[in-house]
Amino acid sequence: MECPILPDFSADSSPPAQSPGAARRRLVLLISGRGSNMQALVEACRAEGWPADVAAVISSRPDAAGLDWARAQGIATQAVSHKDYPNREAFDAALAAAIEPHQPDYVLLAGFMRVLTPGFVARFAGRLVNIHPSLLPAFPGLHTHAQAIATGVRVHGCTVHFVTPLLDHGPIIAQGCVPVLADDTPEALAQRVLQVEHLAYPAAARWLAEGRVSLAADQRVDVAGNPSRLFMLESSR
């Protein structure tokens, strides 16, 4: 059984909404590849004027294309390669050591392809957020688009959620959905899901930056102002 390690954000412990002059929230983004979700987050943060700054982009792969893009935006970058460490615990300790100097309010996983240890998750409990390419709790793990097609679901999508020790589980902040078409391939479906990811993740991150996200006593997420937390593509293609 999963142990609830997230702090109780309900009632008086909810993150306060930011007032004028309040400190800006600091975000650290974790990637492993080209970082399209990372780019969507950075661009939305700047274009929409979130009360937040992307303090750093950290990759588990030194050759990740997303690092070059982030550097070009003037964002601090670093690579912490899992290949340099003997086990997951050692890698996670090095990753945490790279993150901590940036003093993040939130650590956002944006295509970070490493399974994190319970110790790492506990260290950043309540501040660690992921986007997964399925409508959780359906299809945790890898090959989600192929699984969706193989099982015959008619709707597929993505989920933005707080990270807990149980892989691809945790309180859901937002979801995006797309139809599964009769002639879909995993590649075609993945491209449409990615489009809705670029809607759902920036919206969820903005709510976090604005201090609007809290957890109820039953560990379900509340967002002040009750915005729609379901995102859909305008067209099926």
Automatic annotation (TrEMBL):
> Entry's Gene3D superfamilies?
Formyl transferase, N-terminal domain
A single Pfam family it belongs to is Formyl_trans_N
- Which residues participate in N(1)-(5-phospho-beta-D-ribosyl)glycinamide binding? G35, S36, N37
Q: Which parts of the sequence are marked as the site Raises pKa of active site His?
A: D168
Record: residues binding (6R)-10-formyltetrahydrofolate = R88, N130
Q: Which SUPFAM superfamilies match?
A: Formyltransferase (SSF53328)
Identify the residues that the record assigns to the Formyl transferase N-terminal domain, covering every copy.
26-204
- Which ranges of the sequence are coiled-coil? none
A GO molecular function annotation here is: phosphoribosylglycinamide formyltransferase activity
Give the keywords, sorted: Purine biosynthesis, Transferase
Catalysed reactions listed for this entry: N(1)-(5-phospho-beta-D-ribosyl)glycinamide + (6R)-10-formyltetrahydrofolate = N(2)-formyl-N(1)-(5-phospho-beta-D-ribosyl)glycinamide + (6S)-5,6,7,8-tetrahydrofolate + H(+)
Gene Ontology terms describing biological process:
'de novo' IMP biosynthetic process
Q: Name one GO cellular component term.
A: cytosol
Q: In which pathway does it act?
A: Purine metabolism; IMP biosynthesis via de novo pathway; N(2)-formyl-N(1)-(5-phospho-D-ribosyl)glycinamide from N(1)-(5-phospho-D-ribosyl)glycinamide (10-formyl THF route): step 1/1
EC number from the UniProt entry: 2.1.2.2
Q: Report the InterPro entries cross-referenced here.
A: Formyl_transf_N, Formyl_transf_N_sf, GART
The ranges of region (Disordered) come to 1-20
So which residues are the signal peptide here?
none
According to its UniProt record, which residues of this chain constitute the active site?
H132
- Report the function annotation for this chain: Catalyzes the transfer of a formyl group from 10-formyltetrahydrofolate to 5-phospho-ribosyl-glycinamide (GAR), producing 5-phospho-ribosyl-N-formylglycinamide (FGAR) and tetrahydrofolate.
**Family label:** Belongs to the GART family.
Q: Which HAMAP family match?
A: PurN
What PANTHER family is this protein classified in? PHOSPHORIBOSYLGLYCINAMIDE FORMYLTRANSFERASE
Protein name listed in UniProt: Phosphoribosylglycinamide formyltransferase
Q: Which gene encodes it?
A: purN
